[in-house]
Design goal:
The structure holds 2 protein chains of 2 kinds.
Chain A (H helix, E strand, L loop, with lengths): L10 H4 L2 H19 L19 E2 L11 H6 L12 H5 L9 E6 L5 E4 H5 L5 E8 L4 E11 H8 L7 E6 L19 E5 H5 L4 E6 L2 E2 L9 E3 L12 E7 L6 H5 L23 E4 L6 E2 L7 H4 L13
Parallel strand pairs in A: 1-4, 2-11, 5-12
Antiparallel strand pairs in A: 2-3, 4-5, 5-8, 6-7, 6-11, 8-9, 8-10, 12-13
Chain B lengths: L8 H27 L7 H30 L8 H23 L4 H10 L1 H18 L3 H7 L1 H7 L1 H16 L5 H15 L3 H14 L11
Helix pairs in contact in B: 1-2, 2-3, 2-8, 2-9, 2-10, 3-5, 4-5, 5-8, 6-7, 8-9
The chains are: A alpha+beta, B mainly alpha.
The complex binds protoporphyrin IX containing FE (HEM).
């Protein structure tokens, strides 16, 4: 981009240092923008190991599944960067073994589960669910996992357990973007106990029949298909049963934009995105967003009598 | 190319060609990526963001011309300002068209609702509307015809760049690092226009490099 030749006055000699540095920063910014995924398409992703003994499960949709490539390269996982392509590029630093999940709080049997133990806790099922992101796009993903209710049953919640809190790993060495203050780490999400116990709610350990890729929340994540994607916490290390509604990461960040429930609802707009329609990844035209992401028959009764505009 | 106050006609043609190539590169990149399936899982978002980014870069590059001219004393830089400004407008048109067509499918009620209800769209739309009179009066004869008013009108470009940054700031979910970077650049460009600073920069440039045409004079 330099038009002037080599024997010219260096820019640093005629420009105040501060301006020069700012300009360098600006140029670096431009260069980064220009080169980022540059002129080349990304290399095909490395596939995970196949999971054995996976049976087809309930509630699966027959809609066309979003290609593996899209599911694993277009992600929101701020622990690895805020760009959609960042997680696929950066998540290799996450170590998924050894891994433990602490299950604690208002339960009779608190316990530290080893991930391999957790994987064998209940039979693995394939569930093909719609995923609707709060940003207005959606996918159809064949998850592998088991209902969270299987775990809840085993730990025997007490009468005080009215909510469940999920914590993502907090380790900036493995999750480099946690060094930024974009969110107040660790990432915390929460469900009401009846939502957590709902048969649709899944603890997922894989997708497309294979071990969950890191950028999708390995080694274990939540999948709550009738809520916006951010409710489904990734790379979980702690599940805590509590009496009060948890203060989630996004509620802390922007309480007027993100409510506790965050049910998919085409009638309640987010200030930045209309929620009436969505772009299904891979499709050209937008489609109408369905109440509870199309799972109204299964979940609408959980919210009977609740003003969903107020409790968004 | 030597660093001189005047360019030969050949040099002017070559540098304009080079500038055209640079300005068209982002569009070419989109076309190449599009043909190779390189726009990722959500190509429409990719195109919207890419054209939005280059609109903003184009606006800031246009705004950088005069301060750079004053710093360097290279008066011919001013010759490229109009081209840069028009390219910013070109990318703004692509950006807006992407939105109207690929995002909203020309649905008037949905677009109207969006412009009213979503603050970041309201601001982007205002920026785009304000750009139109500037693009329409960019030619030399309009400059002559409007006289002092031309400069007054074209100062709007600061407002437009500011609105562009607010637009960006309001559309990011949480990570404001990019809009902040652009805001810093705009701030630096504005500070360089402060009368006192500009005066001393001009004096400095005059000392550093005696030129046939005094820095600060119009071409
Ligand atoms: C001078 C005018 C404008 C400038 C400088 C501008 C600039 C930008 C920038 C920098 C971005 C973000 C790019 C990124 O995320 O990397 C963006 C995104 C966007 N702009 Fe604009 N814009 C302008 C006008 C408009 C107008 C008129 C509309 C529509 C009415 C619009 C709609 C959008 C949309 C929908 C996005 C994408 C939001 C998303 O992906 O979430 N912009 N624009």
């Amino acid at each position: 981009m330099r038009i002037i030749g080599q024997d010219d006055i260096p820019a640093s000699e005629i420009t105040p240092r501060e301006v020069y540095l700012k300009r360098r920063q600006f140029m670096a910014g431009i260069a980064a923008l220009a080169v980022s995924p540059a002129f080349a398409a990304a290399a095909p992703p490395v596939r995970g190991a196949r999971l054995a003994g996976v049976k087809p499960g309930r509630f699966s949709t027959r809609e066309a599944q979003t290609p593996y490539e899209s599911v694993t390269t277009y992600n929101n996982f701020y622990e690895f960067g805020t760009g959609k392509f960042d997680p696929a590029e950066n998540a290799h630093t996450l170590k998924t073994r050894p891994w433990t999940v602490s299950v604690e709080g208002e339960i009779k049997r608190p316990r530290l589960y080893d991930i391999d133990e957790l994987l064998k806790l209940a039979p693995l099922e394939e569930r093909v669910y719609r995923l609707r992101c709060v940003e207005g796009w959606s996918m159809v993903i064949p998850w592998v996992g088991f209902p969270l209710a299987e775990l809840i049953r085993r730990v025997e919640p007490s009468g005080n357990a009215r909510f469940v809190e999920f914590h993502t790993l907090h380790d900036p060495a493995q999750m480099p973007f946690q060094r930024s203050s974009v969110l107040d780490w660790p990432y915390v999400e929460g469900l009401r106990i009846d939502e957590a116990n709902h048969p649709l709610t899944l603890l997922a350990v894989g997708l497309y029949g294979e071990v969950l890729p890191r950028q999708n929340g390995a080694p274990v994540r939540l999948v709550v298909p009738w809520k916006y994607g951010f409710k489904s916490a990734k790379s979980i290390v702690k599940i805590r049963f509590v009496e009060k509604p948890p203060l989630t990461a996004w509620m802390r960040a922007a309480p007027n934009e993100y409510g506790f429930f965050s049910n998919v609802n085409p009638k309640v707009d987010h200030p930045r995105w209309s929620q009436a329609k969505e772009r299904r990844i891979g499709e050209f035209f937008k489609r109408d967003t369905l109440m509870f992401n199309g799972y109204a028959d299964q979940v609408a009764h959980l919210y009977r009598g609740l003003d969903l505009r107020k409790f968004f | 190319m030597p660093l001189t106050a005047r360019l030969t006609p050949r040099q002017i043609i070559w540098s304009k060609a080079l500038l055209w190539a640079i300005c068209l590169a982002p569009l070419l990149r989109l076309v190449v990526l599009g043909l190779n399936g390189g726009l990722g899982a959500n190509p429409i978002e990719f195109i919207t963001r890419s054209t939005g980014t280059w609109t903003l870069v184009g606006l800031l590059a246009t705004l950088a011309v005069t301060p750079l001219r004053n710093l360097s004393g290279l008066n011919w830089l001013i010759r490229f300002r109009r081209l840069l400004g028009l390219f910013a407008f070109f990318y703004a048109c692509l950006h807006f068209t992407t939105y109207l067509w690929l995002d909203q499918f020309f649905d008037p009620s949905s677009i109207a609702r969006d412009i009213i209800k979503r603050p970041f769209i309201t601001v982007g739309f205002a920026a785009f509307i304000l750009l139109i009179p500037l693009a329409a009066t960019s030619r030399q004869h309009m400059m002559k015809k409007l006289g002092r008013n031309w400069q007054r009108l074209h100062r709007l470009v600061y407002v437009i760049a500011g609105l562009g940054i607010v637009h960006y700031w309001w559309l990011v979910k949480k990570d404001i690092s990019q809009p902040l970077l652009y805001a810093c650049v705009l701030a630096v460009l504005l500070v360089m226009r402060l009368p006192r600073l500009q005066h001393s920069l001009l004096a400095r440039a005059r000392d550093a490099a005696p030129r046939s045409c005094k820095p600060g004079c119009r071409e």
